[in-house]
Amino acid sequence: MSSKNKNKNKNKKNQPSVSADLTTQKLTEQLNSEDEEDTGKDDILEQLERSARKAEARKAERLRKAKEEEIKAEREEKAAAVEQTMVLPEITENEPEAVAAEDNKPTSSEKNIENDVKQFVPHTRRPENEDPTINEAFVGEPEDITGENSVEKVQSEGESETVSEPEHPNKFYLVFAIFVIIMSVIGVVSSVNFCTKIISDIANRTDLKNELTLFLYPIVSVDPPDCDTVEDLPSTIIVESAIWKIILTGDNTNYEKLYNTYMYVPAIDVEFAVRSIFGSSVDIVHQTVGTMDIMFTYIEDMNSYLVPINPHYTAYSPRITDLTNIGELYTVTVEYIPPSALAVEGIDFEVSATKTMVYTLSKSKNSAVLHSIKNITRIGNSYEY
């Protein structure tokens, strides 16, 4: 009996140690489960932080692309507005509502961002030890995420610029159009006057009359008599006409001067001038010619003529009133206009011709030759010849 009692006492002593081991084991298991839960929470937090960073990166990339597209679109709108002379189309009453409804529709990029946000937002209650700043990236209106406000702001600024710019270009185009119209009217008037003058000159043969007036001026200056042929003219008239041609139309820069008042004209130049007026059929006799007022002295030793450089006046000047021709043979009616002291620049007055002569000459392209002179001055009912 004593041995049984001893065993019982031993068992009673071992029972408290077994219960203590069970309690320790349970505590250990509970601590391990709590550690696993903490570890799981940490993994969730790290996953949420990574997801938030990825979402922010995608958000920044989309915002950057959206801004680039808006800037490009704004530049294209401005260029199109300038090409269309900055004139905006009229907007009907229903268009603003349609535009507003179109702007309120979410774009495909906005839908993608919202789906990404919903995917990474946890549906369970936030743990107590979770950092409250993790989900701040997902807080706010979709407008803030997509950058819609900034896009609308850029669009509104672009619209305001396109609305305010057309005022000055429109005024400029108006002034430019008026200027073009005025210049067009002036151009038309000038063109009409020019064409009228050309037609009048062609009809009146103005250029030809001026050319023949210059040819006849030296002859009219000496007042030659009537002649059927130039061979009948006195030799003094022939030489004097040639000298007047040199004075009126020649180049005297190379002639020797005397007191800057007279010049020495070689006899060979006088002969050349005679041939250019009367042809080769007339005889040339060198001699002193002229009047007491204007004298052309022949110096035999020098074979030259002493001629005034600038004579004060001539006996007459020609005015052609009629011109006809048959081929190269021309008949020219010339009025003799006497010199007048009233010939002052800016004063117009009627000058009566002293007499009227008819000259017959032949004219080629570069030269003319005189043939005859006839006086047709009217006296009463007859002509004086």
Explain the overall architecture.
Helix 8 packs across helix 9 (267-278). This protein is α+β, with helices and mostly antiparallel strands. It contains nine helices and eleven strands. The chain has helices at residues 2-83, 95-104, 108-120, 142-146, 148-164, 167-204, 206-221, 235-249, 267-278; strands at residues 256-258, 262-266, 289-290, 295-299, 304-308, 317-326, 329-337, 355-363, 368-375, 377-379, 382-384. Strands 1-2-5-4-3 form a five-stranded antiparallel beta sheet. It folds into three domains: 29-165; 166-204; 206-384, no CATH class. A hairpin with a 4-residue loop joins strand 8 (355-363) and strand 9.
Class of secondary structure makeup? alpha+beta
Strand content: 15-25%
Element pattern in H and E: HHHHHHHHEEHEEEEEEEEE
Q: Identify the strand order in the major beta sheet.
A: 1-2-5-4-3
Q: What is the average of the pLDDT values? A: 76
Q: Kindly state the number of beta strands.
A: 11
Helix content: 40-55%
> What gyration radius follows from the Cα positions, in whole Å?
60 Å
- What general outline do the C-alpha atoms trace? rod-shaped
Distance N terminus to C terminus? 204 Å
Number of helices: 9
Query: Main beta sheet, described?
Result: 5 strands, antiparallel
Lay out the secondary structure.
Layout: H1 2-83, H2 95-104, H3 108-120, H4 142-146, H5 148-164, H6 167-204, H7 206-221, H8 235-249, E1 256-258, E2 262-266, H9 267-278, E3 289-290, E4 295-299, E5 304-308, E6 317-326, E7 329-337, E8 355-363, E9 368-375, E10 377-379, E11 382-384
Helix pairs in contact: 1-3, 1-5, 7-8, 8-9
